[in-house]
2-hydroxychromene-2-carboxylate isomerase (Roseibium porphyridii), 212 residues
Amino acid sequence: MATIEYVYSAHSGYAYLGSAEFMRICADNTVTLIHKPILLSPVIDAQRAPSFRGRTQQHVDYFFGREIERWAEFRNVPIINYRPSQHDADYSLASGMILALGETGPQTDAMAHGLLEAHWRDDMDLSDLSGLKALATSLGHDADALLAKAGSEEMQSRLQANTRWAQEKNVFGSPTYIVDGDPFYGQDHLELVKRALHTPFKAPGWSNPPVK
């Protein structure tokens, strides 16, 4: 049985674009899916990649605009036509909701997808307590109990630990799917993820000189 470590942030647009298709791939194959929600900025910073604010407007318009529009159409995913209005809000409590449900299982899958969908389809503020309560209730949870656990020191420590783990694994961004140790960065690689579940790719043979 293949194991996929699913590394993503709860507010990631590209994780949302691939979420439904990724869940279908996992459902159609014999997979152990392990959720690894992270805080994205520290992971990107560890790779010395430019922040959102550090990119040119042309890059922002293309990567966070046109590319998202095309992939949403291609994957038939409903999405707002602008960057979520509270995209920079604190999403640590939302991430804690995923962690509070465990690292694997259908409830965790549903919560991860639900948060991504609410943010990118409905422009939900992932730091808004009332919105998080409503989502938890809609998924059949005791919202107050789940949110209390999500905000606990244990769950927030796990979120920080996942983030450090992703830095140590040299994860580039969200989403990253690690299939039995082989990482695939970006939802545009889901077709390769699907192939790897039944036919693993050859071990890396390419070598580049170190970046100075």
User: Anything to note?
Assistant: The chain has a mean pLDDT of 93.
